[in-house]
Amino acid sequence: MNLIEAKGLTKKFQDKVVIKGLDMVIGQGEIVALIGPNGVGKSTTIAMLLGILSPDQGSITYWRTDYQQHLAVQLQTTPFFEGYSARENLALFSALYRIRLSEAELQNRLEACQLGDTGNTPAIRLSLGQQKRLALAVTTVHQPTLIVLDEPTAGLDPRASHEIRELIRQMVNNNQTVLFSSHDMEEVETLADRIIFMNNGQIIAEGAPKQLITENGVANLDELYLKLTQTPAVQPIN
Ligand SMILES: Nc1ncnc2c1ncn2[C@@H]1O[C@H](COP(=O)(O)OP(=O)(O)OP(=O)(O)O)[C@@H](O)[C@H]1O
């Protein structure tokens, strides 16, 4: 089943067309990586898919009409209530979603993201890796179908990044779908089932990491990235 089907999306800011007739499908249970250089339109595309921004042209079909209640979005900033502990933050976010979690359920959720021992620590005092894990716990407290993550491991050390990737894999094992953006090609290669590669407001390549590597005759995704984003060499004048 497809969760999202977008067709012919176009978006203009002032006079500049930043998304140019983009078609995109997100299937249930996938981990999809949206990649491409800075400023090519990834965030604009995500904002349109989430219904935050209207496309100037094109259409988006969702798997259910109340799709917004079954979405989670985690931006790079961590959205905690200052002065409250990790556990209290989780309880506050669940209240926002009108979900009542018992003390035992709160503890289970904290343990699921390796924060079982740090529930009483003020959220903003946690390490960056712990904060990112808590942010995942609070943004997914309502068990959403589709989770959108903006550079989920940006700024994290290798172990903290690994732990976030494990949480993302657990979500998909739990029948959730993840769409994430990243500039870390090694991460994309190990995590994504499918890559959507954008450049200049369009999709220029799409497929499983191994398939794209083979099709383009490159050794890895880093090389693919360089190949697909290279500017044409200046032609000598004869
Ligand atoms: N609200 C806005 N008003 C005007 N221009 C905008 C607006 N939002 C985005 N843009 C422009 O649209 C283009 C695409 O921006 P977008 O943020 O979608 O790129 P991106 O691929 O997500 O970049 P990054 O990887 O740096 O996050 C950029 O040129 C940006 O300056």
UniProtKB/TrEMBL annotation:
Annotated SUPFAM superfamilies: P-loop containing nucleoside triphosphate hydrolases
PROSITE patterns: ABC_TRANSPORTER_1, ABC_TRANSPORTER_2
GO MF annotations, alphabetized: ATP binding; ATP hydrolysis activity
Entries under CDD domains matching the protein: ABC_DR_subfamily_A
EC number: 3.6.3.-
Domain ABC transporter: 4-225
Transmembrane stretches, start-end: none
Record-linked Gene3D superfamilies: P-loop containing nucleotide triphosphate hydrolases
Keyword Transport in annotation: yes
Stated family: Belongs to the ABC transporter superfamily.
Record's protein name: ABC transporter ATP-binding protein
Origin organism lineage: Bacteria, Bacillati, Bacillota, Clostridia, Eubacteriales
